[in-house]
Amino acid sequence: MLRPWATTLWVMLVLLCRAVAQYSSDLCNWRGSGLSHETHRRDVEQVYLRCSQGSLQWLYPTGAIIVNLRPNMEPSLGRMADVHVCIKPQTSSQGSHVYLEHEGDLRLLLSDKDQAQGAVRCFRMKEGVLFVEAIPQTDISRKITAFQYELVPSQGPGAHMYPYLHQGSVTCKPCSDQEVLMAVCTSDFAGSGVFRDVTPGTNKHPVVAVTLHRLFHQKSGLFAWGGARGRGWSGRVNVRAPCVVHPGEHEYLLTGSVHFGEAWLGCAPLYKDFLKLYAEALNAGTNPCHINTN
Known about the structure:
15% helix; single chain; mainly beta; six-stranded antiparallel sheet; five-stranded mixed sheet; elongated; 5 helices
């Protein structure tokens, strides 16, 4: 396993370092440059990010940075212990190793070579902070370390659908009636449409092309107008393995979430079954939200 150089000295610096120049334009994203302390290559800078998702970009990395993820909320200690942090490096990211630091102990999360794979790594927030160490080199002009991060609870509504947690215990049981009704209201996207082509995706997750005839709502412009003959919205969704979808003419309610800019399929019953369930909820006065199903 790779270990940082002069680990003992690093730990002492971690304990003594002060929060120096910050380059963030907001509380969610940080952008900085190692050139600000190139002559002090053992400097350690503190970075504080206070959102549930965002990004980091470290140009010309030298020395090290400690990334403290402290969302602007005050949950109980027990709930905070259940929060996971997931990071996804850009495939062009290079120039450093990413560790998890806790009480002076360093555990490697992503080596410099691992980052080119774009693999997602997750850990519990209580396990420590991110320690990003630059690789000593003579030419730093072409090196940029960059990754996105997300905070996600390990329990609660929709937690079981998060694609990067519970990897070994994924099941594809149909959503309950209540889960379907909540999904159409609270998911990052919801609409009705058909599955088209299925292609292999990264990390063994299949990717499915879809055409939506109705789009109730969406986040981040995932689906673009101009689907089949210009009468729908087209896009692509990831499906958690080992779940299977069946391309064809059957129309489904499609709901799901967005992680690191990609759509992931959630509850997806046949649309005719959803319409019946939705009408029953309307008549009983128990539907959580109103949508136009016409």
